[in-house]
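Supplementary Text 2. Reproducibility record for the structural model of the 747-residue chain.

All settings were left at their defaults, and a single model was retained for analysis rather than an ensemble. We include the record here because the model underlies the residue-level annotations in Supplementary Table 4.
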Amino acid sequence: MSRKLELLAPGGDVEAIKAAIVAGANAVYCGLDVFNARNRASNLSMDELYGVIRLAHEYNCEVFLTLNVVILEHEIPILVRLLNQVVNSGVDGLIVQDMGVFNIVKKHFPTLDIHASTQMTTHNEGQILFLGKLGANRVNLSRELNLPEITKLTAVAHENNILTEVFVHGALCIAFSGQCYSSSVSVGNSGNRGRCSQACRDKYEETAAGNEYPLNLKDNSAIFELPQLIEAKVDSLKIEGRIKGALYVYTVTETWRKKINRFVESGDLTGDDSNLHKVFNRSFTSSFLRGNLSKDMFIDSPKDYSAQHAIEKSSAITEQERQVAQWNLRDDKQALGDTLADKIEGLTIDKPNLVISVKAELGEKLVFTALTRGSEFVVTSTSLLRPSKESSITANLLTKRFKSFNDKNHNLAAVDFSNLNEGLSVPFKELNAMKKTLAFVLNGSVEHVPPIEVPKLAQHPKVEASPRLSLLISDEKDANLCDVTDADIYFKIPESLKKGCDKYSEILLSNPRFIPWFPAVLIGKDYLEAVRILELTKPKTIVTNNSGVAYKAFEMGIEWIAGPFLNTTNSHALMEMQEVFDCKGAFISNEINRNQIKNIRRPKGFKLLYSIYHPILMMTSRQCFFQRTVGCKKAAIEDNCMLSCTKATTITNVKGISFAVDKQKGGYPSIYNHEQFLNLEAVRDFSDLFDEFFIDLTDIGSGSKEKLDKVRLVQEFERFLVDENQTKEALHDMVEVKTNAQYEQGL
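Retained model, structure tokens:
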């Protein structure tokens, strides 16, 4: 497996990809106008993708295609048609989020390499093993990780023949990628579908700490951490920026290229990095990598900081001095643009002309000669040409045969028949073989993959005849609910666990009705402690939102159910989890609507679950939401913050909508919608599909902050499952601040 350090650049359009190539990128990543997580980028057509791949490969640059969104059931045929084209494009890898896409690619398009997207929130060693078993040969690690964590995960990845990729420059999300539902909740534009509306960049009413942009992070720039990244043996350094233009891509990529080359050749990290400040940036930080999560990571405006940097660097004081600094910046940008224009002049993604000549002489072999881009390919028959009047080779016959060479990769400009003598023939099967061989060599000596169809999966009956209620608690004090219901009771394990502490193992062992529920994010020792809980309690069943815990449960023979934050939206994802990891059931994502749910197919013997009542999580962060809202005396997050902090506040956007900012003991800082999710319509619509309807009774992120009577809630929900008309009003009266907008708007 290659250990070459790769510089991976973004390509939002053709010009940006050309810029990345001439700037020295080893690889570029780009998307089509469907199924990619940067819908706001210009993106490529299929013809442009073929052209970009041809151009990049001429410069020894690889091309990775982003299919890094969750896929809906009705989109599977569209996805398969796209893959039937992509598989013959010469693309060097697919960047994937959805486990259903893993399933389809592995089974039907095995020649394609799969890279796990940052949207898969990869941050512990179990997830590396999970993704390797899924079929990923490369993993993009979570942006929140620090250098020691990256080093450990890269070692695990390499032991399992997997490459690692780390973002080193560009925009930072404050939320864990793949775990941000802010856009989905507020306007129906999900980050898991490439439609993030960037609520973290929004302006809010001034907070108690005096900030109007309390969630806005500076941009990432790890250029001075290059030695440590190389020491960590990271395989790919990734630049963010598919919605940015060619000048940005060129400037950042070239700067990084020079830094890498200089350091590899001489061990010298010095050199000019001033150009990074001349293109769009929000100022820079590398605090995630350094593990220093301070308030210095934030900046008061999401706008371009390059002009302000130029002013500060020049120590401009007067208005005239400030104008001069900005004029100089403009001139520098123009010079960079002129350099880029010169370098990409003449680069083209147009299809090259193909000229085929035919030579047929009595007693000689039939010869096809193809000329394209200065290369010549010659194919000959096995047999000698013989006289034949009835089955002779004619120009008309060959013209029809050669028609297919006018394809995505070639423009068939001419066919030369000047050396074709009439009345001659070779066996028909040889003629077919010659055409096939010519197609093979013109395709870079790679076999053309014929189109396939993916059969529609069967819908299997439910495990149980009638849907049951299940519920989630996070406090042992709620154990009294065991006395009022026979529902499955899930017990939430926190995201941070004190090393060597048996508190949660003892709770589970003391309450055999409790089924462990594991969170989406478990980093470092918290993952190891979660595994330790499994080893000490050996539960029959768990629910996990973390694929690393899922892998460990599978390894230990523990039944596991995929939680709602694994973002499951289609049948092929269910099939993948069952076939590869013996998964027993899954929550269907609450981001999708009734029409997007209705065609999902259940695998045989597999449970389907759906949450009908819960606090609506908008985002979870490793950074602190309180430093710039209510304020905090600590300069940076300390180890004890996760275990002890229980702050809570609200933030209100300029539209007057407030959101609950919540920090539970042992949890990451999170933001919740002001409304609770209450969806009784799903019970009416899908009692024949779901085995369990789930309610969250953890009191976390409650918009109204009112503590409801949990015993009565359970009783009312159970009555509703028996007779959905009987108690609907009672539940609506109890839950005053509520919405089911996601169920209506979907993805």
